[in-house]
Queue: 4 jobs
Job 1
Amino acid sequence: MAAGHRRWGKGAAAVAAVVVVGAGAASSGPAVAVNALQPKSAGSLPATQFDAAGSAAGAANVPQLTAAGGIYQWGTRGMSGLPAATTSGLSAVSAGGLFGLALKNGAVLAWGDNNFGESEVPADLSSGTTQIAAGWLHGLALKNGKVYAWGNDWYGQTELPASVSSGVTAISASTVHSLALLRNGQVVSWGSRADVPDFAQSGVDAISAGGDHNLVLKNGVVLAWGSNAFGQSAVPAAAQSGVTAISAGYEHSLALKDGGVLAWGHDNYGQTNVPAAAKTGVVAIDAGWNHNLAIKADGSLVAWGNNSYSQATVPKPPVCGPVTGASAGYEFGLVITDRSVPCRR
């Protein structure tokens, strides 16, 4: 697929990174999502041994992570050649179409495909970055309230509007559009989908961009707009109160309520069939193209949906130490895990 001539029929919603405590912060509290309300208090994840759901499928070429907070990636479409810097000290990850982003001490790291410059991080992002978001073929980052964008721009998804040059508190990248949340609670959208309905002009607490639909969280209520071909924008009654986190996939949607995952929209790969393990004790969620990841309070990981490339099978080992970050991409997954905690045999 030659650079500059690549088209797709079904792309994907880039998902927001799942991080610890807050983007760019040290691992000192419970796992929460970038697209979730921040907790008022922070406890610590127990550094205990436990069994993670899943099997060893997709666990080939295990990287030698020598310290806590390193990346593990799996799925056939997981890219080889992880940067050496990803073995420790990470605070966030974000899986895109065929590339990945990580955040370490305020510096953005990138690897994978680079047909459109999606792995060429702007020099300004070598320090001070607080959030990252990987789209299909473009990346976003947040630094000092200003959005940075790079990579594919066929639909203007990296052409930043003036309103996101300051005062931004959250970002989300999708297939060919992007979202930002301003300090005053207003959502800004650009790229292939630039419309923002009246209900997202103020008071919004969290954002998540899907394939061609968007989710926002407002006072615990999930609101949506955009494509509804598979019911991905038809918010169920259960998600209209008490929700604490949201994540939009390509043609499906997730919400977190009372520690349980709610899902709706396209179910062609079982991505809205929430397993029992994800119905209680969940603290963070991430919707990929057609599969999902959920982190539980004990640091274990649950995955479900499309498993064509083992992306919905949690590798065990090595993913059995506390997971402090996770992101579901196109056909691969990324986690930040503590390899110092051995797997229970």
Job 2
Amino acid sequence: MKILISADMEGATGVTWPADVLPGTPQWERCRPLFTSDVNAAALGFYDGGADQVLVNEAHWTMRNLLLEQLDERVEMLTGRHKSLSMVEGVQHGDVDGVAFVGYHTGAGAEGVLAHTYLANSITGVWLNGVRAGEGLLNAHVVAEFGVPVILVTGDDLTCADAAGYAPGAVTVAVKDHVSRYAAVCRTPARTAADIRAAAKEAAALAVRREPVRGGPFTVELEFDAEHLAMAATVVPGVERSGERRAAYSSGTMYEGIRTFKAVTTVVSAAVEEQYG
């Protein structure tokens, strides 16, 4: 049994505001062990449940945040940027039985601690075939195309509720309760590590490859906080304006769809000016 952990940081234990997840800040340094603790607890739980391999794919910002030296010696970690499938890189090789979304969060425009979709700001909403989508929903469709179920989701309480929509069979763990975008009632790392480990052990029983789901075609629409960003997005082939601050594109598969999404966010982030956005 091989498990892929897609590890994001905004939904980690104790994380509540931008400096907690911004590489290079003192708060980020303080939160890295908390993030690593969540991921390691998930890995230990999967081993408890019978997993033979656990691959952790770093999915936050620079994708160089976890402390490798604090992970169980059996774990392997894929770290660094520029990966074909970004947050779920590794699922495409046909040897993964289940995916865990650890440290996830709600999407842009929704309630939730540090809610966003790919870009911290600039994007105010994303819709997949008319349904508001966060990173969890987008990535769940990608892994489904490879026949791999989402079996565990951790984050704040609203992230767990959101997961019921895209991974209804997954085990969930709330490590904190949403108060506002930058505030939460947090559990201690000792408590969340125990909760995540127990949940991952339970979730291991769900790690069974399935028939690939071909759910396309997919239409992705993005809303931005400024008109010029919608215009900038159209530099990407196939992306067209769909409103004053909106752009959209269609794809036959989510493999194609997530790669286009990454291209759009890269172009848009380069079009943001420091003061005016």
Job 3
Amino acid sequence: MDPFDELLRGVRADGAGLRRTELSPPWTLRPTGEDGGAGETSLTLYAPLRGEAWLTREDGGGEPLRVGAGDVVIVRGPGPFVLTDRPSPGAGTGGAEGAVLLTATYPVRGTVARRLHGLLPPFVLEPGDEGCASLLDVLDAQAGVCPPGQQVVRDRLLDWLLVCVLRGWFDRPGTAPSGWFHALKDETVGPVLRAMHAAPDRPWTLASLAAEANVSRTTLAQRFTRLVGEPPLTYLTDWRMTLAADLLTGTAETVAAVARRAGYADAFGFSAAFKRFHGISPSGYRDNCGPEADCSAAVGSCDGAPV
């Protein structure tokens, strides 16, 4: 399984508030707050169907980004960005004919999905000529109709558009962030990461992971640590604990079953490792931390450092 695809499973439209809005200047939209945007861990999608918009920082820093008809921009929340009809407050009235804009918000739920959210840049722009624009006409047609089941259709189309934009950004040379996201493209570390994600329950050792890349243990350890920022087995524990957290809150599996899926032979050893990592027992995590919950209060001062 591609780790990128696995992370996207936690960022899915679910009544994601698709709106088609006709805007006359002056106008301003914010990814959070007064315009109905999502909460702290969210992605907000903007796609002009006609006219143009400008993504700017509320504090006036940085250069404004033009978002033209057919372009799609995804903004990570929370953040300092607003979408307006002009590049700056003193730049006239923006587009004289206004704009027609599709907007949608994606709540980011679960530990795995928040991992993706934290890796993304503040915004991702996919130009209209890069292949995702064809989805906009279909979404435009769906935005104003409400027969039974239409919400499900819209949600899946939005998912398709989100994946198209993020995949295009990830595949673009020089755009992937540092860490494991970037290391996926490495000929040595990439196969090892994919092996871990495909079978986290396997009893991996440094030797067996090195065999996946056909390199020595020393070569793997050095290159993996340099590209990802931590040793292979430390990363594996991190990923297992991330998956386990979502299994505890997203399924009815027993702690013993979750332990096996996370690569632990018994529930006792898993529970001890889980508490060291998350600062709370598996049963306590299940009771207090739903997919949408902020568990910082439940886990005390633990910062989630790998065991």
Job 4
Amino acid sequence: MSKRVIVLAIATATWMAWLIILGYQEAFSHLISNWQIALTMLFGSMIAGGTSIGGGAVAFPVFTKLLHISPHEAKVFSLAIQSVGMSAASLAICLTGIRVEWRVIRWGSLGGLFGIFLGLGYLAPVLPPDVLKMSFTIMLTSFAITLFTLNQNMRQCHLFMPFWQFQEQGILFLAGFFGGIMSGLVGNGIDIVVFSVMVLLWRISEKVATPTSVILMAINAIAGFILQIFVFKDFTEIVQSYWLAAIPIVVVGAPLGAMFCSLLQREVIANILIVLIIIEMITSIVLIPLRPLVLYSSLISLILFSCLNYWMYRGTMYMKQGIGK
């Protein structure tokens, strides 16, 4: 089966279920009344399916400033819609045989389940949204600088985990746990956290790390979505309306993004990711009021993540000659 047929089959099946469950009138009523959400997610879902940063670089500034959606509702919507879009992208990745590292997915997901429960249930209610968002942006920026520096050298890349022992499993569990917390706080995070460990520490190619991170985010988003509905009762009627409007869009955009990414060279994938992080940084600086608490937390985040990324960047244990780019 060709990639186009697979994407079309996934989209068609979802559209039919969307129309049958809601009914023709209600389905298109949600779509028409929330067309701005659907249009935003057309671009956001392609970025989410094709990169490890998620669609927040597009969706967050549009939702919070142009559409005047609260940061909390934007986060709830993010997890809800990623449970559909990223799952569609993951299905396309699996059906088309795109290379992923399943051991990373298993152990990262295990840590992510604990992390997202902690983030959603205990940390998100007490931490200021602007502090969380800016700290997340600083984490991304630090990673982008390190990735850019790393790619200035003609580095050799692994296409799979170079070692697989208790140490690697422990690192993955912790990365998944922290990434899950970030997902619970800002709507995504496990994808970029595990991606950074795979690329910076283990020197795995971006062509493998990206689809691996997409599947990780899909699993984490499904877990978060279930928690929001049944445990924390946070899936409000208005967010549900946004979600229903975006479903038929993201099941096309996210798989297309994943297919497009699979055609690119790893250097191009890295450069696209860096550009998206720059956009994320600029929009956050422009849109988020830089009050003292935001500045202090950003400085702490910059120091912490810069030290961590530098440690991974300087590590030589997982460097190996003779692995193809």
